[in-house]
Design a protein that fits this description.
The complex is a heterodimer of chains A (350) and B (399).
Chain A lengths: L5 E2 L8 E2 L4 H32 L7 H16 L14 H5 L8 H11 L7 H5 L8 H9 L13 H25 L5 H7 L11 H28 L19 H19 L2 E2 L4 H19 L5 H5 L2 H28 L2 E2 L9
Antiparallel strand pairs in A: 1-4, 2-3
Helix pairs in contact in A: 1-2, 1-7, 1-8, 1-10, 2-10, 6-7, 9-10, 9-13, 10-11, 11-13
Chain B lengths: L4 H10 L47 E7 L2 E7 L5 E6 L4 E7 L4 E6 L5 E6 L7 E4 L4 E9 L5 E8 L4 E8 L7 E7 L5 E6 L5 E6 L21 E6 L4 E6 L8 E8 L5 E7 L10 E4 L6 E3 L3 H7 L5 E4 L5 E6 L4 E6 L5 E6 L3 E6 L5 E5 L4 E4 L6 E4 L5 E9 L4
Antiparallel strand pairs in B: 1-2, 1-28, 2-3, 4-5, 5-6, 6-7, 8-9, 9-10, 10-11, 12-13, 13-14, 14-15, 16-17, 17-18, 18-19, 20-21, 21-22, 22-23, 24-25, 25-26, 26-27
The chains are: A mainly alpha (350), B mainly beta (399).
């Protein structure tokens, strides 16, 4: 899914204006606050787990669930920003190694918990396999049938709690790094916000626009092709809800809604100004994303029950369709309108 | 089941490739089911020139996959870009294995490809589809062994997350039956080329783990091990492997060509941060370290960390590397890696040698150009969007 965009077609008349401060708008209007929200959420989760693990009292479980859900939502609003700081140092995979069709996370986390070797923490955890240091690993430890939240008094709970706390600390540290890299004064944020001919990544506003369009297009494709379609299957009999993200914690639909909502806010933050004749494009993108978010909002039940048949399956199908429409309009209409064209070969790396 | 050793050995012997030892048994083989089911639309040719026969044997021909009018096709082209034959494909095609002696080729589906299509360059036989083996898909590239009795295809054993070379009986009576597979020496084998010794394949293992349920989504960016692997065909094993340095673990080696001096030239795609501008072009000679060529800073920026195709000119002295993402084809001196200049071409990707020097290059917008490091590019076909050429343009070698 290496979606790549082609810079070109300079002779085409632009049907939309790129704000000269596009990068600045995106950083200040969306990226910086979204990464700060993630950092706050991850710290909240870490603090909550550290406190709860001292007693593992059943009445503390809802608060842990709530902090976990906040972190998942905040991450979902950031994960489509797969360029720069999120790509560097394997931060994306360390925060969330998913999809994982071969079940690496489960295998490695089980092995880690089964032994009695000292659990890795801090730098030691950050140096481990990405599969044991991120959100999917934490979800498994907390939400599996025999996990911490189901059996907080279990024999292995103390070890699992220590591990969960270490993973949450790792997430908080990664989120801090991300927020720092997108904060004022960091070289990457400056490069993106104020592209210049001598800068390493972005030399002008059009290159910033290409990165932003690529992120949106790829994010929408990921939402449909990685998160929904493999789980939904071609028919009700082929539904595989355990291939949806966060199926254990019941956050499949809400996490996707947070992601779609984030992409819409990111798009709005760009402040593209379309010619009168092209206003429809802008409205279509917003409309499809709003509808997709609304459809996902109607799917709050556990994912297994909603994918097999009936209204639930229809809603998932509709959400996938809306996300695909939004991607098509961005690829085929919005991108060329701002001077970014998508190539037959360039779009789909091979 | 194991590789069908007796059959493979017989075919190797026919190619003059007697195995050095007989232990080809480490070759684990997948289901080698018969894969020669008939094409859905035999003789599915169309377009100007389709069905012509009796062409002179020396006529210069090229192969490319394209999308036109919503249909995917493999096309035999003449040197001015005219269609000489059109073969319908069930999906988007990518590259080709070519058997010049028997005037035939196999078009491979673009990854994750579940079909390959064998066809006659002169239309003397109906195209025949090769389905991917159970649990395998094609990566889009392949090559015949000398003599043309064996075909190798780069494939993904996707449940195991392992790269393999599918081995097919391409002899006249073989019907492209899959007779086994060889470990490719890495994950994500993409292009494979035959070395001048006629017995070694050089495989570009891109290092990126994918699963067809997730298309091309990279599932192991944290843990990539790209590299070149040399596979001895007769021994069915990797005999040499080289990798980029650890700081370039995200530098996926995808495309290859062999220069006149026998060295392998390759092009990479980088999946790390855009602000990194690693060298994308390299040269390797057996037994040595990789040499890297980056070119000037402006070129590096223009290539956008992406090379989509690599070709040597007819003399094997100039290497062309295309970047459809950057819309630029760059040329390199095969002797010393000096950057020789470039041709701008939006979404330009396919490159193949022109017999009189320089290259033919094509684009996803339909253009076909005669171009090279010297002189102006000349347009043979316009970028009018009537057809979209896929990544690779191949010249049919002289038999």
């Amino acid at each position: 899914m290496l979606a790549c965009l082609l810079l070109g077609a300079p002779l085409l008349a632009r049907a939309a204006e790129l704000p000269p401060d596009l990068g600045q708008r995106l950083v200040q209007g969306y990226i910086a606050p979204a990464t700060q929200t993630l950092a706050r959420a991850a710290h909240g989760l870490h603090d909550e787990l550290r406190a709860w693990c001292a007693t593992r009292a059943p009445q503390g479980v809802p608060a842990v669930r709530a902090r976990f859900a906040e972190t998942v939502a905040a991450w979902s609003a950031v994960e489509f920003l797969r360029f720069g700081p999120l790509v560097a140092a394997n931060r994306y995979e360390r925060f969330s190694f998913w999809p994982d069709p071969r079940g690496v996370t489960l295998r490695q986390v089980q092995a880690l918990l089964a032994g009695d070797a000292p659990l890795p923490e801090g730098e030691a955890l950050a140096a481990q396999s990405v599969a044991v240091q991120g959100l999917p690993a934490l979800e498994y430890v907390l939400y599996s049938d025999t996990g911490l939240l189901a059996m907080p008094g279990g024999a292995a709970a103390a070890r699992a709690c220590a591990y969960a706390t270490a993973v949450a600390a790792n997430l908080a540290r990664l989120a801090d790094e991300l927020a720092g890299e997108w904060g004022g004064g960091s070289p990457h944020a400056r490069d993106f916000a104020q592209p210049s001919p001598g800068s390493p990544a972005y030399r002008d506003t059009r290159e910033v626009a290409a990165e932003a369009v690529k992120a949106l297009s790829t994010g929408l494709q990921f939402a449909r092709d990685a998160k929904i379609r493999p789980a939904l299957g071609a028919s009700p009999e082929k539904a595989a809800p355990r291939r949806a993200p966060y199926w254990r914690s019941g956050l499949s639909a809400s996490s996707m809604r947070a992601g779609v909502d984030g992409m819409l806010r990111f798009y709005n933050a760009a402040g593209l100004r379309f010619e009168a004749a092209q206003q429809g494009l802008d409205q279509t993108v917003r409309h499809e994303l709003e509808q997709a978010g609304g459809t996902l909002a109607e799917l709050d039940a556990p994912v297994a029950g909603t994918m097999a048949d009936g209204d639930g399956r229809r809603r998932w199908t509709l959400a996938a369709l809306l996300l695909g429409n939004a991607k098509d309009v961005i690829d085929q209409n919005v991108a060329p309108a701002i001077g970014v064209t998508l190539g037959f070969n360039a779009l789909d790396g091979d | 089941m194991g590789i069908e050793r007796r059959r493979v050995l017989a075919l190797l012997a026919a190619a003059g490739l007697a195995p050095l030892r007989t232990a080809a048994a480490d070759v684990s083989a997948a289901d080698a089911r018969t894969a020669d089911r008939p094409a859905a639309d035999a003789f599915a040719a169309g377009g100007p020139g389709a069905g012509l026969t009796g062409e002179p044997a020396h006529a210069v021909r090229y192969l490319a996959a394209r999308k036109r009018a919503g249909r995917h096709e493999a096309v035999v082209l003449d040197e001015s870009g005219g269609d000489r034959r059109v073969v319908a494909l069930p999906g988007r095609g990518h590259s080709f294995a070519i058997d010049p002696a028997r005037r035939r080729a196999v078009a491979f589906g673009r990854q994750p490809g579940f079909f390959a299509m064998a066809f006659d360059l002169d239309g003397r036989a109906a195209p025949a589809e090769l389905a991917a083996a159970e649990g395998r898909h094609f990566f889009g590239h392949g090559t015949y062994a000398p003599g043309g009795d064996l075909l190798f295809a780069t494939e993904n054993d996707y449940e195991a997350g392992r790269g393999v070379l599918g081995v097919y009986d391409a002899s006249p009576e073989g019907g492209y039956r899959r007779v086994g597979e060889i470990d490719s020496g890495g994950i994500g084998p993409h292009e494979a080329v035959l070395m001048p010794d006629g017995r070694t394949l050089c495989v570009a293992n891109g290092g990126i783990l994918t699963h067809p349920d997730y298309g091309k989504l990279e599932l192991n960016l944290d843990d990539m091990r790209p590299g070149l692997a040399y596979v001895d065909i007769a021994r069915a094993e990797v005999v040499e492997r080289v990798e980029p340095p650890p700081e370039f673990s995200r530098l996926s080696i995808r495309h290859l060509t062999v220069a006149a001096d026998g060295s392998v030239w390759f092009g990479c795609q980088y999946s790390g941060p855009a602000a990194d501008r690693p060298p994308l072009v390299g040269r390797h000679r057996r037994g040595r370290a990789i040499e890297w060529f980056a070119g000037p800073a402006d070129l590096r920026h223009a290539l956008r960390n992406y090379i989509g195709s690599v070709a040597a000119d007819a003399a094997g002295a100039v290497i062309a590397t295309s970047s459809p993402v950057g819309g630029r084809v760059a040329y390199w001196d095969a002797a010393d890696g000096r950057y020789l200049g470039s041709t701008p071409l939006p979404d330009g990707c396919g490159v193949a040698p022109h017999p009189a020097g320089g290259f033919l290059i094509d684009s996803g917008q339909g253009a076909l150009l005669r171009a090279g490091p010297a002189g102006q590019a000349r347009a043979l076909l316009p970028a009018d969007g009537r057809q979209a050429w896929d990544n690779h343009l191949r010249r049919v070698p002289e038999a």
